[in-house]
């Protein structure tokens, strides 16, 4: 079952561009608003669960957040995000995992 989920999401990200999926947002306004409402410091630990190739990480980096993790079951999705970010990819902790199996070694503020 786990392998089926991973294969499904790898296939999606290998065969579709962001504009071809319903969840892509040019500006992830709701997520950004919720994070801003938490009044976190720029060093707070933020994790984007199921972040995939989302632009949220780009916006968080632009806003000056320094402790960002992005988790997704699809390594392909994360590789696309890393490629898009270029050198800034090194400022992010990338986690390939199904959230239902994820056992964090640290706690997150958001």
Question: Mind explaining what this structure looks like?
Answer:
This protein is α/β, with parallel strands linked by helices. The protein has one domain (2-96): 3-Layer(aba) Sandwich (Rossmann fold). Helix content is 37%, strand content 15%. The protein has helices spanning 2-15, 29-37, 56-62, 75-85, and strands at 45-49, 67-72, 92-96. Helix 4 (75-85) links the parallel strand 2 and strand 3 (92-96). The longest helix is centred in the N-terminal third of the chain and has 14 residues, at 2-15.
Chain-wise SSE layout:
Blueprint: H1 2-15, H2 29-37, E1 45-49, H3 56-62, E2 67-72, H4 75-85, E3 92-96
Parallel strand pairs: 1-2, 2-3
Helix pairs in contact: 1-4
Q: What keywords describe this structure?
A:
Rossmann fold, alpha/beta, 110 residues, three-stranded parallel sheet
Largest beta-sheet characterization? 3 strands, parallel
> If you consult CATH, what is the topology?
Rossmann fold
The separation of the N and C termini measures: 29 Å
How much of the sequence lies in strands comes to 5-15%
Task: Quickly give the structural class.
Answer: alpha/beta
Task: Report the CATH architecture.
Answer: 3-Layer(aba) Sandwich
Helix content: 25-40%
Strand order of the largest sheet: 1-2-3
CATH class: Alpha Beta
Mean pLDDT metric: 92
Number of helices: 4
What global shape is seen? globular
Oligomer: single chain
């Amino acid at each position: 079952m786990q392998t089926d989920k991973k294969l499904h999401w790898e296939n999606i990200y290998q065969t579709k561009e962001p504009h071809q999926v319903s969840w892509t947002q040019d500006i992830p306004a709701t997520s950004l608003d919720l994070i801003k409402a938490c009044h976190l410091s720029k060093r707070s630990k933020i994790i984007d669960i199921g972040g995939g190739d989302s632009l949220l990480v780009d916006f968080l980096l632009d806003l000056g957040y320094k402790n960002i993790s992005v988790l997704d079951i699809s390594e392909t999705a994360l590789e696309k995000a890393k490629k898009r970010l270029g050198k800034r990819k090194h400022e992010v902790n990338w986690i390939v995992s199904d959230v239902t199996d994820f056992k964090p070694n640290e706690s997150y503020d958001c």
